[in-house]
Prior knowledge:
The chain is α+β, with helices and mostly antiparallel strands. The chain has twelve helices and ten strands.
Amino acid sequence: MDFLIPEELKQLRESARRFVTEELLPLEPEYADKHDIPDDIRARLQARTKELGFWAFDLPEEYGGGGVGVLGMCLVFEELAQCNVPAFRAPSVFTPFLGPVLFHGNAEQKEKYLQPVIRGDKRTCFALTEASGGSDPTRMATRAVADGDEWVINGSKIFITHADKADFVQLFARTGGNGREGITCFLIDKGTPGMRLGQKFELMSPDRPWELVFDNARVPASHIVGEVGRGWDLAREFLGMGRLIHGPKAIGRAQRALKLAVDWANQRNTFGAPLASRQAIQWMIADSEVELHAARLMTYHTAWKADRGLPYHMEAAMVKLRCDEMMMKVVDRAIQIHGGMGLSRELPLEVMFRDARSRLITEGSQEMQRMIIASELLSGRSAIDRIGD
Ligand SMILES: Cc1cc2nc3c(=O)[nH]c(=O)nc-3n(C[C@H](O)[C@H](O)[C@H](O)COP(=O)(O)OP(=O)(O)OC[C@H]3O[C@@H](n4cnc5c(N)ncnc54)[C@H](O)[C@@H]3O)c2cc1C
């Protein structure tokens, strides 16, 4: 077994760390509790990451990306996640929010939608969840009905991140059938008559997702990605990679929280001695480090599988489950070690805590991850049997 991280990825991580420390962390106090950064700051930071050669570092080289692979992406996202600003978490400063769907588009769709997103000229969003329940999106009620060369869409989606900023929407709607069959993926331009923003969701975390309403919105048939009725495969691919990416994001934030806790324990005196000398505090720190280490190994292993084209569906569910729970615990302990200051808005811990809580639900709740893992096991597929495959 080789646990060595390739030299070029270590250098990439080091450069990302420097950029986060020097250019992003100074912005944190002002933007930590806002759901987005102003467009001019985004443009400036994007210009800077392009200049440094970071921009789209994770995307395939044939599309103008850096092609660093999934492990490289995890290493950079881990660094990026140390900075507690939603727009950086999203991560639109180092690379566009994109997902795998558009890579399945035809040449014309790639030209019109994929390439501008990769260049940073357009933004997109992913619209799957409905009020009927995000855990089982295959019961979606949003319908698309063919009418000549167009499709007419009616229904609504909720909790859609960046729906307000997106130049086009990756929408999943039912075009027939039941369950996973008969779901189709459409690309819908901002300003399309019949598509509008509905409710804005004010959440405990800084995220501000939106409702998207479709009232006889007409979309040309040429805006369908892949085949009619085969959209679920695209959504599933998006969700699988999304779960894996929860790993580095949780690790980066937990690492930051642990560092804050260690620094505080060393400098804070109670009863005439540093907190760091107390066993109760040491154990919280030790437990956090152990859990972080385990989460990191799981994540890197899953990334390693993804880079080799091996199946990682179940492992990604385990990564999301374990890493997000780990983050919750590590941030909670860091707050405990800080006492009253841990609750203060002067430190980033309280916003991290609110964010950690939200992550146990977003992109598939913890219960859904357990369901995925159990169903794999109960149908005879164990991660232990395929740890090196
Ligand atoms: C900040 C934020 C951003 C989001 N961004 C997007 C986005 O960009 N695009 C998008 O499409 N969606 C987005 N979502 C939606 C998100 O994916 C869903 O909220 C999530 O999947 C849970 O769905 P739900 O809220 O409908 O809960 P429900 O499905 O109603 O579930 C409620 C609770 O019941 C549990 N539960 C449900 N079924 C079962 C079962 N069979 N057994 C045991 N327990 C069960 C769930 O785990 C959960 O705890 C976002 C959500 C949030 C909060």
